[in-house]
Amino acid sequence: MKNTVIRYGVLSAIAICALNLAGWFLGKNLDYSTQEVIGYTGIVVALVFVFFGIKHYRDKENNGSVTFGKALLIGVLISLIASLAFGILDVIYIKYIDPNFVTEYYAHHVEQMRSSLSEAEFKVEFEKLEAQKEMFSNTFMNFFLMFTTVLIIGFIISLLSALILQRKPLQS
After folding, report:
1. What is the pLDDT of residues 45-65, one digit of tens each?
2. How far apart are CA 13 and CA 21, in angstroms?
């Protein structure tokens, strides 16, 4: 199990980093909504290795059977590796590759709120945003947010994969 988790976890981590770096650099001139869709799509595509890792374990290492719990564990562990890689990549991106990202995204979000809310609603939402601004400027918080996002998506994919791939051992 350990080798499967490491192999497919590393493959997922490489895929998530490559897809998101490509999305960041090739999509630099796209609007934030489109970039967000590309980012989430990259996360889901990279986490397809969860399914293949569980399937590999079941078919190649465990004589064609795997319990739901074991499959879920394998999937979550693979997702954990991808989550760590993406969290670290995001910190590197925000700190070194595009240090203005948070400021630019914040300004964009404020403008979007200003154009879509009444003045009274804007003031309330702006105060909430200002309260969160410091928190999201924190490097650890950026890491934790991206790590958690990928882990949650990975958990859902692990759950679905475990449901699809679970198979009881054949009785002799």
Report:
1. 999 999 999 999 999 998 889
2. 12
d(CA 169, CA 171): 6
pLDDT at 98: 80
As a whole number, mean pLDDT of residues 64-80 equals 95
Residues 73, 79: Cα–Cα separation, whole Å: 10
Look at residue 121 and tell me if it is in a domain: yes
Say if residues 77 and 5 touch (Cβ distance below 8 Å): yes
Residue 39 in any domain: the answer is: yes
Helices within the chain (DSSP H only): 2-26, 32-46, 48-56, 68-92, 101-116, 119-136, 139-165
Query: How many Cα atoms are found within 13 Å in the side-chain-facing hemisphere of 80?
Result: 8
Amino acid at 121: E
Provide the number of structural domains found in the chain: 1
- The rounded distance, in Å, linking the Cα atoms of 162 and 155 is 10
Three-class DSSP category at 117: coil
Residue 102 lies in a domain: yes
Range of the domain at 27: 2-165
**Residue 172: partners with Cβ closer than 8 Å, 6 or more residues away:** none
Biggest CA–CA distance in the chain, Å, is 72
Q: What is the pLDDT of residue 68?
A: 95
Q: Which pLDDT score is estimated for 100? A: 82
